[in-house]
Amino acid sequence: MSIYSHTIDGKVYRFRDLKDLLAKASPARSGDYLAGLAAVDYEERVAAQMALAELPLKTFLSEALIPYESDEVTRLIIDQHDRQAFAAISHLTVGDFRNWLLSDQADEKSLASISTGLTPEMLAAVSKIMRVQDLILVSKKCRVVTGFRSTLGLPGRFSTRLQPNHPADDPAGVSASIVDGLLYGCGDAVIGVNPATDNLHAVMTLIDLLDAIIHKYSIPTQSCVLTHITTSIEAINRGAPLDLVFQSVAGTELANRSFGINLGILQEGLDAARSLQRGSVGTNVMYFETGQGSALSANAHHGVDQQTCEARAYAVARHFSPLLVNSVVGFIGPEYLYDGKQIIRAGLEDHFCGKLLGLPMGCDVCYTNHAEADQNDMDVLLTLLAVAGVNFVMGVPGADDVMLNYQTTSFHDALYVRKTLGLRPAPEFEAWLEQAGIFSGDARILADCQDSLPGLFAYDLKRIAGF
Amino acid sequence: MSDILTVNPWGSLARFTQARIALGRAGTSQPTKPHLDFQFAHARARNAVHHVFDHAGIEAQLSERGFKPLSLNSAAETREIYLQRPDLGRQLSKASLATLSAIPDEDLQRDVALVIVDGLSSLAIEKNALPLFDHLLPQLMQRGLSLAPVSVVRQGRVAVGDQICMALQAKLLIVLIGERPGLSSPDSLGIYLTWNPDATSTNAERNCLSNIRNGGLDFPTAVHKLLYLIEQSFRRQLSGVDLKDETQAIPEKLSHENRSFLLE
User: Fold this and answer.
1) What's the start-to-end Cα distance of chain B, in Å?
2) Is residue B84 within 8 angstroms of chain A, CB to CB?
3) Closest to A464 (Cα-Cα) out of A98, A179, A54, A107
4) Comparing C-alpha atoms, which of A112, A136, A189, A127 is closest to residue A158?
5) Which three-class secondary structure state does DSSP give residue B241?
6) Using an 8 Å Cβ cutoff, are A161 and A189 in contact?
7) Where are the domains of chain B?
8) Predicted confidence (pLDDT) at residue B249 exceeds the cutoff of 60
9) Quick check: B184 contacting A, CB < 8 Å?
10) B31-79: pLDDT as tens digits
């Protein structure tokens, strides 16, 4: 391990090793203080950033933050590293890399060509010396397109996960939120339910429900029940009509073990979902969720700061060609991200690191009631992510998830983004919305449903409710 | 107004869910009323988190019932510290440790240590802890279980009870704690049961009952479930995953036969 140092006006700042340097260069957040890793004061943080800026990118290939021998995520990162793709930037320092990313030399094509040559640690490092506008500008240049029954991530598109959670997994309750979301034009990324229990029978009931609705109304989207991957594999074995396999992933082997997974189990899930061949426009079958602080909360961070751990989770996700990846940025609570300012920055860092690694990044723009955050903070993060080209966000009725007890973005929020930035849903879904009479001709404004329901749902809703 | 606001004609679906569906729209945005309703729900949840815990009130009511409660603090001195340092919320302050070490011998080695903790919603404790206590206590007495001095802890997390239970040398720890407030449940109480806790106890060694409040899990049902866990815990001398696996039948919510109205 090398000692890193930086001298400013005769004062020498020393950093124990590479992970200490990264942690101290990290913009302030409560989780790094909780772990005892953060810079002791403002000056030490910037000194660490200056030292980091002078570090050759190559360093990250020779100095592992978590030993190769003891961590399969490190092994994945090193073994999968593409030296040919890295060659174009191998001479740069972290500071030069920031300049290059911001320069006009870095465009969609060149960023895609270096993607497999980047490691999560390189991206975490450069993100620590980037401002919010840098993170947005560079992310915006990346494009990651994936597909299953809808095509996600195309230029000018902005998608949503319809999240119709219900505290008792009640089919009618889930369906009510699905109708609400679809009639507000949401659900092109996935209709994805967090079940209240991991019980196999309950999960299979929900999988059947979502599949039946998608097929009855010919909706060009995919379903997902966000249960543990082993439950999904068992459901597939029992013949469930499952579209996407979900799993939470983290950036260390130990943290993944606390989730009850490893790379082998993820591969089994991928193989099982692919074997069903249910996609029509693409073969991306995995849905991953991540979040800064997950490794620390599992006491599995190995002294690595939470944002770097998070970036390493994206290397795990990348290996399985996911349809969707989202950082559930504000869910974990104020002991990891204290307030709106920390949540906003973390959301943009995650989007940046994921996109540069080639992931179809979305974000659960969210907060809990014990965080120092509110709807205004979420509006800021949502707007900035939409400008940065985020692939998708969540949509829940009225921003209030009545099962998970937190606040995320609403169907109305998605329409705000589409209206102000001129963004549209996935093309297949957009065509369906128009055909169903939910969107009118310009594909952005809801058809006027004042007196009548869109034809598609009119029969079912009138029958049950006497409309 | 009707030409400004668009009403959603699927409002009757609201009978199937508490989710905020069919809110209508002004343009494509939330109309003023649901917007401000949401703001109020959030304000109430925020107040629940930051509400100053009237621990003296709880202690006075325990005294009225003939108990001499222990008034304790965690190592987190303020709410701000508490929210950012869960590790401090799990430890007792030095003064509180001293209080515990002065407990007379005759109060030690009882069956049950009951610990009341503000957690993330002191509102939940103020509204629900004593009514629950009143349902629980006669049942404990009836079963011949002896009670250690009841503790009331400020700025505490669940695991702060471990230290207390160890100091009191009690067999079973029962923590009543205010849960993280949701928009529709700012006053939800949780109960955590831990058999013979020590400094290394993890959540896998605890059993939890959640969402105890008016409109959630009611007191008699909560106490019924808790007593089952208590009896099993004493019988098998353990708590946590091993206990839960055998007691948790298929939850009622899984046996529903109701179908989606979309698929009938």
Assistant:
1) 37
2) yes
3) A179
4) A189
5) helix
6) yes
7) 5-49, 54-249
8) no
9) yes
10) 999 999 999 999 999 999 999 999 999 999 999 999 999 999 999 999 9
Burial class (CB in 10 A: 0-12, 13-18, 19+), B157: buried
Cβ proximity of A306 and A350 under 8 Å: no
> How far is Cα A160 from Cα A181, in angstroms, rounded to an integer?
10
State both tokens at B233: 């815990």
CATH number assigned to the domain covering B54-249:
3.40.50.11240
Chain A interface includes B28 (CB < 8 A): yes
pLDDT confidence of A158, banded at 50, 70, 90?
A: very high
For the stretch B135-155, pLDDT in tens is 999 999 999 999 999 999 999
Please give the residue of chain B at the shortest CA–CA distance from A412.
Answer: B29
Under an 8 A CB cutoff, do A369 and B13 touch?
Answer: no
Which amino acid type is present at position A419? K
pLDDT tens digits along A88-98: 999 999 999 99
B44 touches chain A (CB under 8 A): no
Residue A74: closest CA among A32, A114, A113, A121: A121
Which tokens sit at A181?
A: 């979301």
Nearest-Cα distance to chain B for A55, in Å, is: 32
Angle, helix B32-50 to helix A375-388, in steps of 10 degrees: 110
User: Which residues in chain A have their CB less than 8 angstroms from residue B45's CB?
Assistant: 369
Closest CA to A180 of B41, B2, B18, B254: B18
Instruction: Give the DSSP letter string of A254-280.
Output: HHHHHTT--HHHHHHHHHHHHHH---S
**Closest residue of chain A to B260, computed from CA coordinates:** A172
ipTM over 0.90: yes
- CA distance, residue B77 to nearest chain A CA (Å): 15
Give the closest of B2, B22, B42 to A369, CB-based: B42
List of residues 6+ apart from B123 with CB closer than 8 A:
B47, B48, B51, B178, B181, B186, B187
